[in-house]
Design goal:
CATH class: Alpha Beta
Largest sheet: 2 strands, parallel
Shape: rod-shaped
Distance between the termini: 65 Å
Order of helices and strands: HEHHHEH
CATH architecture: 2-Layer Sandwich
Structural class: mainly alpha
Strand content: under 5%
CATH topology: Protein Binding, DinI Protein, Chain A
CATH superfamily: Skp domain
Number of strands: 2
Strand order of the largest sheet: 1-2
Radius of gyration: 30 Å
Length: about 170
């Protein structure tokens, strides 16, 4: 019986300590999209990525056009070709098509790598500003506003983070 009372007392003490800790924690929120989209560095990175994407798309289109031209030429000359020549052309076209698919994958990977290269420093800068604002204002946690079901406007640190970033 004494152990049940001791256990109950210990449980109540631990519960009260946890309740005090939860009350003491301050949670802030922000709109990361709003911050990112207003950063000049992000706008510059987006422009660079769009330019690279257009260049890679142009390269793929050129390769596709070359394959189409080979097909058209082969169809035009089909009546004058021997079966061996037709097989050779089909093999070349198949190789060209495979190269095209490989290049599509390479170009997508190249674009992703460039995006990571350009945006990583931006996100690191934002993260640093968030951490700084959170520490200055005593926030234990900072969450994305869009992920919250309810929030108090006073705990929105978006403008403070933007100010810290100079935007």
């Amino acid at each position: 019986m004494k152990s049940i009372i001791k256990f109950s007392f210990l449980f109540v003490v631990v519960a009260l300590m946890c309740a005090n800790t939860a009350v003491a924690q301050k949670i802030g929120h922000l709109s990361a999209d709003q911050i990112v989209l207003q950063m000049p560095a992000y706008k510059s990175a987006s422009t660079q990525l769009e330019t690279l994407a257009k260049q890679l798309e142009t390269q793929l289109k050129t390769e596709e056009d070359q394959i189409r031209a080979k097909v058209a030429k082969a169809e035009q000359n089909a009546s004058n070709l021997t079966p061996a020549e037709i097989q050779k052309i089909e093999a070349e076209l198949q190789t060209d098509q495979q190269k095209l698919y490989t290049n599509q994958g390479k170009y997508k990977q190249q674009l992703l790598e460039k995006e990571q290269e350009l945006t990583a420093p931006i996100y690191e800068k934002i993260k640093s500003a968030i951490k700084s604002v959170a520490q200055e204002n005593g926030y234990s946690y900072v969450m994305e506003t869009s992920m919250m079901l309810f929030s108090v406007e006073a705990d929105d640190i978006t403008s403070q983070v933007k100010s810290k970033l100079g935007i």
